[in-house]
Amino acid sequence: MSQSQSSRTPRGMRPGTRVADGRKMRTLFAEDPEWSLALVPSLTTLCLQHIIKHFEENPILDELKPKYKAYVLQRLPESLPLTVCANLISDESYWKRCCERRWRICDVSSYGNSWKRMFFERHLENIVELFIPDETDTKTVLCLVPLCRNYVKRLNITQLLPPIKEPASFDEDDRSDCASDLGSEGPSIDHFDFRILLDKLPNLEELSVVYGVKACGMNFEWNLFEFTFRDCESLAKALNSCKTLQVFRIHRSRVDDEKCCLLVSQLLDHPSLQELDFSHNHISDRGARAIGKLLNRSQLKRLVVCNNQIRASGAQALAHALARNATLMSLNLRLNHIGDEGGQALAQALIKNKTLVNLHLEGNNMSEPSAAALSQALAENGTLKSLNLSNNRLGVDGGKLLEEGMSHNSSLVECDVRVTDVGQDSLLCINEALSANQVQARKHNHNYGTNAEV
């Protein structure tokens, strides 16, 4: 080898750089001046990225170490099919991202602080609310059940869509032949059939239903808000099959006496029902009598039948049941028409009842005779804590009677007598008695808490 060849600087070496044998060498530089070895992802990271990319086809999660599992969960897309992620991913941060991506307002405190529960309850609610009878395939609901059944505790259904009614069309010549067949035509169901769902949700505790359509605007028709007898039959059977149900509400659905009786008949002796809400419907005395029967064949703690058409006879039936009841703690009869006969009956029931804590009787056309009966009840009842009598015609004399009853009462801490025409002197005395009871209640609660700690 010639001298010139032996002293030649190797390719890629900066002049002036020496190697072990004393020769000068040059340093290699990358074409990208910002490149460094630190930018090269590790083999572990490449594997995790591959898992994320192909998670839908091959979901690998539980086999990973905790730190790698956390890495994957933080980067999984929210668009994964529920069949893949529903029963595999329990990480709350993932379900939080799913909820916030889908809904603008997300109050997780209303769902036991569980983002996964929020997602599946709201998702199932949306499916039911957009279900169109004879149009939507029931598989859209049934396929979801195995994925959400363990997480759904409450359903708040704010609308139920009716079937799509197509206009009848037939030829003039066929009119006579078709006329006989029109009676047999029609949808197979009128609204969503809860029988296909409720018995498949083992943790369902609360169901609220409205048979109506939201935001119908200029397309308003009464049939959009029709809770049919066929609907009632299917709903009643569904309620009977749901043994875990604790709260049932049906609002603004034009529930009349016949439908109320049918629903109640399937709730008799229900093992877990604690709250029943029939507010804003068309229930009258017959329906109230059925509810009275339910009071002593259930474990109800709260009953709401406000804004219905219950009159004296219905109130008397409820009072008869209340006198023997040992579980009910709250009764709301606001905005009915029970009058003095109903008011007096309920007051007499309070003398015997030992469990009721809250009673709402506002807006019921009651007057002085009701005030007299309630005065006697307050003097003897030691359980009631809240009484609302607002928007009744008690008058000055009625106020004096209530004042007398309150002077012998030690349990009532709230009494609303607004818009009742009671005198100012009576109002002042009633408020003073309430204040004294409130002080005693606070002392009792404090002592009870201290003793409990000891």
Strand arrangement within the widest β-sheet reads 3-4-5-6-7-8-9-10-11
Query: Structural class, from secondary structure content?
Result: alpha/beta
Q: Proportion of β residues?
A: 5-15%
Strand-and-helix sequence, N→C? HEEHHHHHHHEHEHEHEHEHEHEHEHEH
Task: Give the helices and strands, then pairings.
Layout: H1 3-6, E1 17-18, E2 24-25, H2 43-53, H3 66-75, H4 82-85, H5 92-102, H6 115-129, H7 139-142, H8 145-148, E3 154-157, H9 175-179, E4 206-210, H10 229-241, E5 247-251, H11 257-265, E6 275-277, H12 285-295, E7 302-304, H13 312-324, E8 330-332, H14 339-352, E9 358-360, H15 368-380, E10 386-388, H16 395-406, E11 414-416, H17 424-453
Parallel strand pairs: 3-4, 4-5, 5-6, 6-7, 7-8, 8-9, 9-10, 10-11
Antiparallel strand pairs: 1-2
Note down, in words, how this protein is organized.
The protein is 40% helix and 8% strand. It is α/β, with parallel strands linked by helices. Among the domains are: 35 residues, no CATH class; 200 residues, Ribonuclease Inhibitor (Leucine-rich repeat, LRR (right-handed beta-alpha superhelix)), CATH 3.80.10. Strands 3-4-5-6-7-8-9-10-11 form a 9-stranded parallel sheet. It has a two-stranded antiparallel ribbon with strand order 1-2. Strand 4, helix 10 and strand 5 form a beta-alpha-beta unit.
Write a compact overview of the structure shown:
The chain has 454 residues and is an alpha/beta fold.
